[in-house]
Write a structure and sequence with these properties.
389 residues, alpha/beta, Rossmann fold, Helicase, Ruva Protein, domain 3, 5-stranded parallel beta sheet
Length: 389
């Protein structure tokens, strides 16, 4: 039975819609304004939301914007007695399924609700199929070495929980892959995984990027904008290179983790968020704490579980499997069959000093794939991989 939420500050309208929808066999709930609507959607799933536009506390347009973040797959039907073409266009642009003027034509309302539910079912089916395809491709951690087996064992236990995880390791070791593996094995796999590289964002913009901003809060803020925490609501936020974040931003991240609430830049209103945070760094955060560059209280919030990803030099026995993986993947990308790597070539690659780790190995295999004949030998590795030889 489909569940529908009616949002309107006028009781007669709510009653009329409720009666006709319940007569058609729908399960109906009510909210008196946008704020209550958002609160209900945070707590339970609805198949369709029908909302008025002009309401106290929070109007329908703002509620629509929040719902697009909280539950983007839920169709929202806008209803208004003050509707104009411009209002309808604005609502549809912001993600509304349809716009109906008051007093609503009940036949049209029922048809629109049925169409919305069918659309939602189609979207859900598509998401399930995409997830199945994604699972078949797999976010797979390639390797059978002792360090990798230990990490897989740990992640199998950690992933189903909501515990925060700090992933450490050198650049190119696969920290992002570990984060994706945790997300896809977690109970939040159906929710979004949002990534933010803390090192790539200027210090003056990091707060806006993470927490969003209010229109007019600074030069260039031409519209309200949700941040990464809001975008990740119900899912996972992966904060890469968190060791490069400013102390001011660290303090606000700490508050978000403590209270599960954020405040957009230039706004005073608190927004509740349900986010699992995974963080990664190539730095020794203990040293950063001693140097006064990282907050110790934030470290302890993040490091509930610490996963150290080994360097490629620490897992050389995995290199033959990784060569096979990248060889097949690159062959698929180029539309050719895979190359043949001789035992000598594989041994030479195992003995190489991989300062760039798996990222460097992937680049090297692509280089050999392009430059070499069908068989890649030891001499090819010496020519195209080893420097000054």
């Amino acid at each position: 039975m489909a569940k529908i939420l009616i949002v309107d500050d006028e009781m007669p309208i709510r009653r009329t819609l409720r009666d006709i929808l319940e007569f058609e066999g729908y399960d109906v709930d009510e909210a008196t304004d946008g704020l209550e609507c958002v609160s209900k959607v945070q707590k339970e799933k609805f198949d369709v939301v029908i909302t008025d536009i002009k309401m106290p506390k929070m109007d329908g347009i703002e509620a629509l914007e929040r719902l697009q973040i909280l539950s983007p797959e839920t169709p929202v039907i806008m209803v208004s007695g003050h509707g104009t073409i411009d209002t309808a266009v604005e609502a549809v642009k912001k993600g509304a399924f349809d716009f109906i003027s008051k007093p609503p034509d009940l036949n049209r309302m029922l048809i629109t609700v049925r169409n919305a539910i069918e659309r939602a079912d189609l979207v859900n089916t598509t998401q399930v199929l995409r997830k199945q395809v994604k699972s078949s491709k797999g976010v797979n951690m390639i390797g059978e070495s002792a360090p990798i087996i230990e990490i897989k064992r740990m992640l199998e236990k950690v992933a189903p929980t909501d515990s925060r995880v700090l992933i450490t390791g050198q650049n190119g070791t696969g920290k992002e892959l570990v984060a994706r593996w945790i997300h896809e094995k977690s109970n939040r796999a159906d929710g979004p995984m949002v990534e933010v590289n803390c090192a790539a964002i200027p210090a003056e913009l990091i707060e806006s990027e993470l927490f969003g901003h209010k229109k007019g809060s600074f030069t260039g803020a031409i519209a309200d904008r949700p941040g990464k925490f809001e975008q990740a609501n119900g899912g996972t936020l992966f904060m890469d290179e968190i060791g490069d974040m400013s102390l001011d931003a660290q303090a606000k991240v700490l508050r978000a983790l403590q209270e599960s609430k954020i405040t957009r830049v230039g706004d005073s209103k608190e927004i509740k968020v349900d986010v699992r945070v995974l963080a990664a760094t190539n730095k020794d955060l203990r040293e950063e704490i001693s140097a006064g560059r990282f907050r110790e209280d934030l470290y302890h919030r993040l490091a509930v579980i610490v996963v150290k990803v080994p360097s490629l030099n620490e897992r050389r026995e995995d290199i033959p499997l990784l060569i096979e993986h990248f060889n097949r993947r690159i062959a698929d990308d180029y539309g050719h069959g895979p190359k043949n790597f001789t035992p000598g070539a594989i041994k030479a690659l195992q003995e190489y000093n991989w300062t760039g780790n798996i990222r460097e190995l992937a680049n090297v295999i692509e280089r050999l794939f392009i430059l070499c004949d069908q068989t890649v030998g030891e001499e090819d590795v010496q020519l195209y991989v080893y420097p000054n030889k």
